Inverse folding.
């Protein structure tokens, strides 16, 4: 628990958060809880629990990495709207910055 | 679905509510497709789990735990504490689930009957009912022109009305059945704000009585559609034969809608324009007639208008009508009154309020008892945990912290108990689905959870927590640190012991209140069934027919009635058969006013009246005190001047002539004006209205003498069982008229049962709870005694060593048991005496302080008390040898 707090104080993301963030980024503003979960499962073969997705999205939202808008209600969803997530500018910037920082460490070229 | 929505609405963070429900709906559809379970329980579980995780994560903030003053630690401790003692936890949970569950279950039924929104009615708060209230109480009927006048009032944006009708309905294939329906004005579904499941609502064209062809349209209920048409979407355009006339189905009403009141059981709606077919008893031209209908009228109130304003507007309109036509007697003696919502008659709501008031009081005692039981168990547990508390305090925990943790344990327990109660209620709803409590109410469907029940359960759980866990936390945390740490504090603190005894007394007392109450109700019930009715009930079968809907022609109806009676008499196993206008305990009936011939009009006696055919009194096994029953030749015939006959009951004979030997005497009727009739017989008083008032004087005239009723109830006396005779009876009716439906088939015993259904329900429920309560309180008493014996083992051994016999020691325990039982009984009886005044209206033939009931209660409780004290007493006696 204590580790986690220092983690987020430094603005670092956990693995789960990274996964979700990448999925959000990849769906360019169309992603919502169900589609994000599907995407992650498709790409990584990791089936995340429903609760984890919500909790992570919630955390990313409060950390300011993602923002959300309510989509159009559709009939296959019982007339309920989707909550669609997209990356915030800050997140994109910091992601880029971090990637640069990360390069030498990982030794990727 | 609804439940999941409530969970979301209450617990999910607002920004997630809608999307999460959508996500779950989507996922559910997928699961269905892949053949995995996706029922209500999955949805509920998924909702609770997901919201729970969200909330849990949110409470921890972005970072991990900040350990907010140890709250989380305390919660974890609480759960761990319960896990450690599974047996005790189970016992506590069971008790709490029972206490809270009993309350929630009763409330859920009350909620269904009294508070739930009526399906298919939107914004009931802006609806208002308008009635023509007589100045001397009661209501007048409203005519169609009056209804039109009311709809012009500026306070209403629209107004509609329905009249109750029973229709003979046959579908394409099947036999005719009897269906409850509303004849409604065109605006009915619009005023109620209903979205039809299929098709459309009525339009003004169908309100036109001049064009009956246009008006032969019918809307069916969702239930009817599901039951008889298998939810066929092609149902629109199909035909139902209603009273022998084809009606086209144009719509299916909203799911669950059975009429605008909660107690509605309507399956069909026909336009008022079809009244010549559906309300044949009324004049052919209703639109211009002053004939009043038993209309219930209600409308949408224009926003900003008060009911008082509507009253004023209606009053002004009434005054205007009276000015133009001062002979309108009805309007002179009545006022239009607007009431909020779809108003049910006050007698109906009062009865329900009373019934559920009583039941809620009963379950409140069960809750009190459960609280006392929980308190007792928790106190015992607190006592066991003294060492733990002492250790914690020695390490620096404050007493407040200990209390807090124990309260948290209590809250956790009560929340679990509340959740259990909700599950019990949900299960009960499933069990009750389709159960008919009384025939006057529709079958219970979807009784279960909504936010009212949920809030009630929550509130009850908190009451339980405050009542059960608070005291043990406060008292139990008072620890003598030194003594406890030295492990020498064997006994309870005196305060703890006193409280445990007091709680045992509370338990006994509440079970005494419930036992005494249920004994009184039981006594009342047997008294009710013991009232002599004046006729047999078990072997008399009654069923209703309404040939008036099939045959307009009087002569044909008369022939039909007569041949029906004849035909039924030939059925094997039938010893007598006769027709009557009104069956016993139908809450309707006619009146008559008459005097002995030669007396003055002022001496008129008001009497009940009924029309019966030959064979009716024989079928009921009624004693004839003088003269004879009607002859076949007198039944189903209209009166020839001067030859009218009458049978009177004993009360009427005595009032008229001061003797029962009245056969051959003559009376003058008030209606038909001044007609003189000869009394041919005097029968014993028949109790047909209720059981508590004296039998009214009653006059019986031959069926069809004054006028021919289009409906009646056949009474058949059977030698064998109903099941064996019923096919032959149906065949006999079909032989006379194959298209004639028979309905309301029941024995007179069942009619009496129906009359007493509500009292019986209350009695049974109270008795069941009383038994459970007594069992619970005895377990509680046992707990106190057993713990006492364990604690006093050393004392008992010393006594034995000093020469006390084992029986003497056992007697000590028994004495304590008896003193607790007697104290509880005394307290319970005192409480009962104080409370019984509220139950007095429910009693029959016994007083609230009926000695039989009170002594039976006393006996039962003392016996039970002695019984549960035996094991601890024996143990105490045995323990003396183990010094």
């Amino acid at each position: 628990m204590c580790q986690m707090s220092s983690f987020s104080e430094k603005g670092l993301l956990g693995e789960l958060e990274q996964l979700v963030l990448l999925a959000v980024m990849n769906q360019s503003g169309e992603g919502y809880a169900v589609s994000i979960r599907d995407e992650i499962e498709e790409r990584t073969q990791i089936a995340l629990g429903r609760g984890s997705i919500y909790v992570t999205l919630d955390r990313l939202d409060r950390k300011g990495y993602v923002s959300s808008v309510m989509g159009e209600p559709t009939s296959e969803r019982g007339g309920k709207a989707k909550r669609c997530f997209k990356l915030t500018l800050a997140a994109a910037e910091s992601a880029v910055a971090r990637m640069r920082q990360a390069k030498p460490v990982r030794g990727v070229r | 679905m609804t439940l999941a929505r409530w969970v979301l609405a209450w617990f999910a963070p607002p920004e997630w509510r809608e999307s999460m429900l959508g996500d779950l709906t989507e996922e559910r559809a997928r699961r269905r497709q892949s053949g995995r379970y996706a029922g209500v329980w999955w949805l509920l579980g998924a909702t609770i789990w997901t919201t729970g995780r969200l909330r849990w994560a949110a409470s921890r903030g972005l970072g991990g735990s900040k350990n907010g003053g140890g709250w989380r630690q305390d919660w974890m401790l609480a759960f761990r504490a319960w896990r450690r003692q599974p047996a005790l936890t189970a016992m506590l949970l069971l008790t709490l689930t029972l206490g809270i569950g009993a309350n929630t279950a009763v409330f859920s039924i009350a909620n269904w009957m009294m508070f739930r929104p009526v399906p298919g009615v939107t914004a009931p708060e802006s609806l208002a009912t308008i009635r023509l209230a007589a100045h001397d109480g009661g209501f007048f009927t409203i005519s169609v022109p009056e209804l039109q006048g009311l709809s012009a009032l500026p306070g209403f944006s629209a107004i509609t009305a329905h009249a109750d009708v029973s229709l003979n309905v046959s579908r394409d294939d099947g036999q005719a059945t009897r269906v409850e329906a509303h004849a409604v004005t065109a605006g009915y579904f619009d005023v109620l704000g209903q979205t039809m499941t299929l098709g459309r609502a009525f339009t003004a064209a169908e309100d036109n009585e001049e064009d009956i062809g246009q008006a032969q349209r019918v809307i069916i209920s969702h239930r009817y559609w599901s039951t008889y048409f298998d939810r066929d979407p092609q149902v629109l355009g199909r035909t139902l034969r209603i009273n022998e006339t084809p009606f086209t189905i144009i719509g299916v009403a909203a799911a669950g809608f059975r009429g605008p009141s909660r107690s509605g059981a309507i399956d069909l709606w026909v336009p008022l324009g079809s009244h010549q077919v559906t309300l044949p008893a009324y004049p052919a031209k209703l639109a211009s007639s002053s004939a009043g209908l038993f209309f219930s009228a209600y409308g949408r109130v224009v926003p900003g208008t008060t009911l008082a304003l509507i009253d004023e507007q209606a009053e002004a309109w009434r005054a205007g009508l009276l000015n133009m036509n001062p002979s309108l007697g009805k309007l002179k003696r009545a006022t239009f009154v607007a009431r909020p919502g779809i108003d049910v008659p006050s007698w109906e709501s009062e009865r329900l309020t009373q019934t559920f008031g009583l039941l809620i009081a009963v379950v409140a005692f069960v809750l009190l008892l459960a609280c006392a039981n929980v308190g007792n168990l928790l106190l015992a547990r607190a006592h066991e945990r003294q060492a733990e508390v002492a250790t914690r305090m020695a390490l620096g925990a404050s007493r407040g912290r200990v209390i807090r943790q124990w309260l948290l344990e209590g809250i956790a327990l009560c929340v679990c108990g509340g959740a259990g109660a909700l599950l019990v209620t949900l299960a009960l709803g499933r069990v009750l689905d389709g159960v008919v409590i009384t025939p006057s109410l529709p079958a219970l469907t979807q009784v279960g959870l909504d936010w009212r029940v949920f809030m009630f359960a929550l509130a009850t759980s908190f009451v339980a927590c405050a009542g059960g866990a608070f005291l043990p936390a406060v008292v139990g945390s008072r620890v003598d640190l030194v003594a406890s740490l030295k492990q020498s504090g064997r006994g309870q603190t005196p305060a703890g012991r006193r409280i445990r005894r007091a709680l045992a007394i509370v338990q006994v007392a509440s079970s005494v209140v419930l036992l005494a109450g249920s004994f009184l109700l039981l006594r009342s019930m047997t008294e009710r069934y013991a009232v002599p009715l004046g006729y047999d009930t078990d072997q008399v079968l009654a069923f209703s027919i309404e040939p008036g809907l099939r045959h307009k022609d009087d002569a044909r109806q008369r022939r039909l009635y007569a041949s029906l009676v004849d035909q039924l008499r030939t059925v094997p196993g039938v010893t007598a058969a006769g027709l009557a206008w009104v069956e016993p305990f139908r809450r309707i009936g006619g009146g008559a006013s008459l005097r002995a011939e030669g007396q003055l009009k002022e001496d008129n006696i008001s009497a009940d009246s009924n029309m019966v055919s030959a064979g009716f009194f024989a079928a009921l096994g009624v004693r004839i005190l003088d003269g004879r029953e009607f002859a076949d030749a007198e039944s189903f015939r209209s009166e020839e001047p001067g030859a009218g006959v009458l049978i009177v009951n004993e009360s009427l004979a005595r009032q008229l002539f001061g003797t029962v030997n009245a056969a051959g005497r003559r009376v003058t009727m008030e209606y038909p004006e001044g007609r003189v009739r000869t009394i041919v017989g005097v029968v014993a008083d028949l109790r047909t209205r209720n059981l508590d008032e004296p039998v009214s004087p009653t006059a019986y005239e031959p069926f069809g003498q004054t006028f021919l009723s289009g409906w009646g109830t056949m009474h058949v006396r059977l030698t064998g069982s109903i099941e064996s005779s019923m096919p032959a009876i149906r065949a006999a009716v079909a032989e006379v008229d194959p298209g004639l439906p028979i309905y309301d088939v029941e024995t007179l015993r069942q009619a009496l049962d129906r009359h007493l259904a509500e009292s019986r329900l209350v009695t049974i429920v109270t008795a069941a709870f009383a038994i459970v309560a007594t069992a619970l309180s005895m377990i509680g008493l046992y707990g106190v005694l057993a713990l006492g014996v364990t604690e006093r083992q050393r004392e008992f051994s010393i006594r034995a060593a000093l020469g006390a016999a084992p029986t003497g020691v056992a007697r000590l325990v028994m004495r304590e048991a008896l003193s607790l039982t007697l104290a509880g009984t005394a307290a319970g009886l005192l409480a009962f005496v104080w409370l019984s005044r509220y139950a007095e209206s429910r009693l029959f033939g016994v007083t609230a302080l009926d000695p039989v009931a009170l002594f039976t209660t006393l006996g039962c409780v003392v016996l039970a008390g002695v019984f549960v004290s035996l094991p601890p007493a024996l143990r105490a006696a045995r323990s003396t040898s183990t010094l």
Chain A has one domain: 13-106. The two ends of chain A are 35 Å apart (CA to CA). Chain A touches chain B at residues 1-9, 32-34, 50-52, 54-55, 58-59, 62-63, 68, 70, 73-74, 76-78, 80-83 (CB under 8 Å).
